[in-house]
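[scheduler] slot 2 assigned
[scheduler] job type: sequence-to-structure, two independent chains
[scheduler] chain ordering preserved from manifest
[runner] begin chain α
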Amino acid sequence: MKNRFLRTAASAVLTVLLVLTLLPQRAQAAGATLTGTSALLPGDTVTLTLSVPSKVYGLSADLSYSSNLSLSNYNCSVSGWSIVMNNNKFSAYGTSSSSGGVVTIKMKVSSSAKEGDALSAAFSNVVVSDGNSDTDLGSASWSGKITAAPSGNCDLSSLSCSNATLSPSFSAKTTYYTCTVPFAVEKLDLNYKKADNTSSVSVSGNELAVGANTVTVKVTAANGTTKTYTIDVTRQQDPNYKASTDAALSTLTIEGTTLSPTFTPTVTDYIAYVPFETRQVTIAAAAKDEKAQGVTGTGAVQLSATESETVVTVTGTAEDGKTKQAYTIHVLRMPAYTGIVPTVEVIDPATIPAVAPLEIPGTLTLPLLGEVRTLYVAIAVAVLLVIVLFLLGFLIGRGHAGSANDYEDDEPQEPQPPVLEKHRTASVPRLVPRQEEPAEEPQPVRQPAAVTAAPAEEPAPAPKAERSATDEPSQSDEDEVRTMSLDDLLDDIHKM
């Protein structure tokens, strides 16, 4: 009987084991986690991430959280996975396996929560599947707490200088101060205290240059709020310092056009061409010396509406305040377009053939003479040319003289009225077209006769009174001279 009982018990155990083998496997293991920021303020939103330790194809879990939290969003962190929620029961799955953070949720803290209130959220009954079996990971929980809001106090409780006196006296609400230090002070030594120890302070600009300086003391509160205390410091000049007299400009430009010539600090006169429609130009300039007091004449300049040229003067003032340098710009507006577009042939300088310089040989090879220096040849040619010109002039002069004598011998001339020298020198003849003279009637040919009666003598014209060279010409003389024809003038010149 005892053996029968043992056999029956053994059979029952085997049967249970067989049934368990045939049932779906569900193991219990730890490892799921829920993480997120724990220190929160009322109204904050916290992101919680559910992570699993091994690669899975899906999971299911139940979400629960405290009353001062509310669920605002949820999603799957794994690409290609889908997530479903029903009554805070989550199911997430996909065709690819993944581990680590697989599900994220966003929880919003109630605005009515108070400092010190506890916050909590948890995923329970977390079951994951690796494709072959399910594994129970138990639960994953998170807890947080409402903390005090960070301080917004960004004031200083005190501010002073060991080597200067601030004006006005310090006050936490006063953020602007001034002071003057001698040339020997190179750095402003500041002393300050924070009104809230959680704030931070930064100082800048306390390395002093000669002249104006700005020192800032920036206070940053724990919550990010800032306040800046400003100190304008004037460092006095070195008593032995001599101010610069450099008033030149380093740059000078006109917007939309180009100066001609290209700007050079030593050149003070320029031309700039602008379209006809331009009514205003903008001029920019900068002083060459950083310590120069400034530049005037820059900015927008209106062009003349009636004149094509507008003269603009830009003046630089040196550090000493007395030395000035003026730059003149002649702004020229182009003519208005009238409908004819000028053609401009653009020649590429690279295509212009280079002209070889003229080289004169030092010697020349001449027939019968052989090699002769070029200088001697040039001198000989010049002498020969002078001789030829002299001979030509001499021959031409003799030819003119002979023709004049022949003319006088062959054709007797009628006596001409005397022409006063004063007439010739005082009045300039006016050349007029010569009038056509009427054709002379042919004279009958005289036949020789044995006896010819002597023609009656015509009474001789009364001689004209001779004038001296000092006598003034009459109006008739002037008219005669001024109406003289070109041929008469030439004849008169031959008779002189």
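[runner] end chain α
[runner] begin chain β
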Amino acid sequence: MTADLEVTPPERGHCVGNPLFRTKSIERILADSDAPEHRLKRTLTAWDLTGLGIGAIIGTGIFVLIGTAIVGDAHRPGAGPGIMLSFILSGITCALAALCYAEFAAMIPVAGSAYTYSYATLGEFLAWLTGWNLILEYGVACVAVAIGWSGYFNNILKLCGLELPYWATHPPGADGGIANIPAAIIVLLVTCILIVGVKESARATCGIVLIKLAVIAFFIAVGTSSVDTANWSPFMPFGFAGVGAAAAIVFFAYIGFDAVSTTAEEAKNPQRDLPIGIFASLAICTVLYISVAAILTGLVPYSQIDVHAPVAEGLRMVGFKWGAAIVATGAVAGITSVLVVMMLGQIRVFFAMSRDGLLGPWLSGVHPKFRTPHHATYLTGVAVAIMAALIPIGEAADMTNIGTLFAFVLVCIGIMVLRYTKPNHPRPFRMPFMPVVPILGVLACLGLMYFLPWMTWIRFFVWTIIGVLVYATYGMRHSKLATRPSTEQSETPRPA
């Protein structure tokens, strides 16, 4: 069994050096996570973490966005059948980042994910920017996922002969829409589950995961017999430009494995189970994605694929109307589990940043009974519900992707910095091929960011500027490191 670290909390004092580059030692991070007022309940196993990862990954990306990635839109060309290569490119990018995440998560098994890792390596300012963009990633993703859930839910109601009024399913300004009520309701229901406990959330997610895995297996089994290989030609109708642009879109379909690391403080054996949860969920989803992409593009010509419900409509177009209904039901289940894990990730980032003093202390409050960060859960649930009800889905996927890719870049850089600054620190999981893997990870992430529309870059810079202003006016002044010494304490191994 891996040795634990005996941590002595540092004495309080004044931080020296430039506050922008002050780092939080691993010892302090671990000590803060163990403080009684902020301690979370450890209940998650490797199975739970893998289920959470799959639950977060498989959802909107494969059930909705794959259509746009194949066909293209006004801003970029589509990949056509080359979508299979797009999934491989995005999967490789995520795998490179996942190796860095796994080493970090095993070393620093606390809430906060990339934010916490950046705080330990790159300094407070870059940590703040990482956390700020994780808020963008999870927050916008939650809104997009909730709206996607509402769309599929309404389709199921129509199949049953029921239909909600238009005004109750569309945001203001959308031809008479008032509010997307189903989207808001599902967010509030998920909020209640998350307040009760992460174990209960994991159990609910794992149950849903089994349903959507069965649905995807059903699609593969039924669709295989109807594949016409002639539909795979031309394989890349718009060349590599289409494949690259599609890879930047379907990257959204992989977002979620990183959310596993945000639950580190609630894992029973994080050093062993976090890497298992990250890699197992990513590997399973990659195989399924490539299989679905191959079958979908083989069922109908790529130009005829419905961008709104591509998987279900693909079956319907070849005569499997009953199969389309089953897939639509699975999509609702799949998107629900994504929402659970994305909101969980958002909440843990709020919690970690608040615990460090960079956000208000109210957000790091822990429920006395359930031992969950209930204040952060309330804020996330209400904010996401309001936005899901009142705004269109718009460019949500692109904004989520650029925030995530930025965080991945900093994680890849951070792991190299930590290998240099803390070479002897115990590493329960050690990333191979250092520094090749993180360097390739940085280049791959920047490559996918290059293919995102220029408007997404503008929105990203605006969001970043707002974050800098918030840090300058609040975070820098209230940071708990401001009254602590910048020097790190020694680590003394303690036998397990």
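[runner] end chain β
[qc] chain β: The chain has 17 helices and four strands.
[scheduler] slot 2 released
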